Amino acid sequence: MTATASHTEQLADFRAELRHLDPDIQVDDSRLARALYSSDASIYRVVPAAVVHPHDEAQVRALCQTASAVGLPITSRGAGTSCAGNAVGPGIIVDLSGMDEITDVDVEHKRVRVQPGVVQEQLQRVLRPLGLRYGPDPSTSSRCTIGGMIGNNACGPRALAYGRTADTIESARLVIAGGEVEHLAAAASSDWASERVSDLVERNLGTIRTQFGSFSRQLSGYSMEHLLPENHRDMAKFIAGTEGTLGIVTEACVSLVAERPCSITVALGYASMAEAADAITTLLPFRPVACEGFGRRIVEVVARSGKPVPDLPRGDGWIFVELRADSNAQARRDANALVSASNALDGRVVTDEREAAALWRIRADGAGLAGVSLDKPAWAGWEDAAVPPERLGAYLRDFDRLLAEYDLHGLPYGHFGEGCVHCRIDYPLDEPDGPARYKQFVTAAAELVASHGGSMSGEHGDGRARSALLPTMYSPEALDLFAGIKHIFDPHNIMNPGVLVDPHPVEENIRVHQARTSPLTLSHPDFAAAVHQCTGVGKCIADNSGAGGVMCPSHQASGLEKDSTRGRAKVLQEMVNGTLVHGWNSPEVAEALDLCMACKG
């Protein structure tokens, strides 16, 4: 999908109107910018009309006011690491990464005020010397932004102990369509929007109490349970997971945690990954900080990659548990008690920090390799389902059968302590009937997860990948609630249209790589496939140079998306597809590759 002719006309009006409000705002509708922002870490491609980089809330207000006046859609974006397609859109992409101020660090009350572009790891570096941390820690922490985490209600492994992003939000400022600012907090707002939301909730208490908040990772749709009177009608927590469909968060006050000082790792082996999942409920009473599960296939992937694999407990399925305590002695006692209660074939309490780091590296490396280790490319799309932990083992067995039924392959792993399973799958998206077959599978997968009382999303959001499947999980009354909430904040469907409410079909706008015919003969015959190996997760934009990592030198110097490895891959993807960028001699390719040093770091 590309920006339509009507969007082109609206863009001219948008520029003219915006110039009156704030002439300093730059609207970039170049082919290069549109190519760079046409995809995220999902399987979707939607070419925007233009990209804007606001510097403060006043500019965000001007953007929303102007877009609303001319009817041009707005999609907010942080680091572009969304796996569900909720950071792409046809109108204006609002890149909030430049709004990255950290203010008002309150050590006594354990809270901090941040702008949406603050990178999670950047925040942790500020807090670490103070003995504090921000709780949620998704795998993209080195580059994901707090604004993006709020949009998706991001979690990560330690959300088990420290909470989801929603659990940390004490208050927030939300710019809605039209440019007005709503101050969101718990039972403290008398704004017109909050009052209308309260009226809507009062009329639907039964629906909300019976269909929402059944377990910690039920994150598909709007999290209506936060708006119940017994939950203090907490608009701040409710905004997490709304995926930019109600407005743009320009500031948030979030709570922090002080970690207990002593950490210990327990590695548990079981006969299979499903049997490991069966044991989760015996481990949760020990209040683990993290409880991660995976199977033999992940270990084999790590071994084949040439990475070291330390000795593991006996079995074909494993759970790694992190415990924390106030003393090393207490940590060891807790760990030994957990092993005794675990029903594991084999268990090991790991006190050596280097050995523990090597074990956890299996989980991290396996997750990174799971999408590129199969015979065919593996994709996001059904990568984030969650079920109540007591149902996890049964769900994994059924999910394996479903993959076999559709002749698909994937390597499940995930946050077993909260029933969340990640899995990239080798959908045949490049075949003529690939998108249709993809839709058939994810529809069946949604029905499966619903039969286990689960959620299609456990932390990545629904986006374009799952929004159209929400009727599988929720009643018509619940879906009407979503529409009612959306209408209060965004009556003209300006904010991230096609997501959550009035969603686009899951098979629409899938990013299929297909090289156009070219007279140029390449020494690498699979060049098109090679440039599409970039999934957009953005590891290359993380500034890990201080930790001895690798980062593209030109991107490190400029900080611009076009100079990142991901940005260059996107431009080359558009070039081989012959869409926005036309040929090797195009100025867009020249600009993207101009500062490339071919360092192959």
Automatic annotation (TrEMBL):
Gene Ontology terms for molecular function: D-lactate dehydrogenase (cytochrome) activity; D-lactate dehydrogenase (NAD+) activity; FAD binding
Domain FAD-binding PCMH-type: start-end pairs: 44-259
Cited PROSITE patterns: FAD_PCMH
One Pfam family recorded for the sequence: FAD-oxidase_C
Cofactor names: FAD
Keywords: FAD, Flavoprotein, Oxidoreductase
One GO BP annotation of this record: lactate catabolic process
Full protein name: FAD linked oxidase, C-terminal domain-containing protein
